[in-house]
Every structure is written in C-alpha cells, then in structure tokens.
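Entry for the shared binder. Reason: the reviewer on the internal report wants the predicted structure included alongside the sequence.
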Amino acid sequence: MNVVLRAMLAYWILLIAVRLVGRRTASQMAPFDLVVLFLFGGATITSVLGEDHSAVAAYSAVCTIGLNHIAVSWLKLRSPLFGRLVDGTPVVIYENGGWHEKRMRGLRIERSDVMAAIRQSGLQRLEQIAYAVVERDGKVSVIPPGEDKG
C-alpha cells in the first residue's frame, strides 16, 4: 500500500512540475528539456519504489500512475477550470504585425520557434501570417490573413 500512495504522490508532483516547466512538446524540445524530463522520472522512481524492488511493487506503481492519469482526464472533462489548470489555455504570441514579448518570455518560446512553425506550415515570412498561437499542447499554430475571421 505504501508504494501505491508514493506513486500517487509522485504522479501529482510530476504533473505540477511538468506544468510549471512549460509547454514545449517533444518535437520542439531542446536536449536540455529532454534531460529535465528524464531526470524527473529517474529521481521519482526511487522515491516511489523505495526499498521494495519487487514486480508487484512496480506493477502497483504503474497501475496507480495509470489510474491517476485516467482520473485527471476525467476531471478535465468535468471541470473546464481544472482543465485550464492542468493544460493551460492557447496564448496569442504574434498578431497585427507585432510580437507579444512578455507572453513569449512567460512561455519560454523564442522567435526562431515561431519562424520554424511558419516554415512548417508552408509559409516563409511573418507578413504572410495574421496570428501565431501557442496551443495548449505547446505547438505553435500559424493563422494566415483571411482565416482569422470566425
């Protein structure tokens, strides 16, 4: 039972830590971002399993983490506020020809990340977009002029 409680605590601590670290997705991560995520997992496993290195303890920890993940998904469906706390909200970082530098600093995203998203969408220059939005999952969406009308 101790392993289950430690796994539950580790899940919530890691969820909060990853949320605080930022939104960069795996495809946009720099090597140091990946190192941080791997270290989170490695540092957590010893606190979860402690001295019990049995298969039952490992299986219990994995099941507990999986059930916590299902619980969080369910709570996000039931509560928009909880969903915003866990996943965040889309953030406009470029509009009307100007950058929102403060928002970008808060998200720890650089202009070069946005330019990469622009190129990946088949465009070449800032003048070709109306908006750039960092989505909840950390990806940058690029909206050309004319498509921004609801």
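Summary line for the report: The chain has a mean pLDDT of 81.
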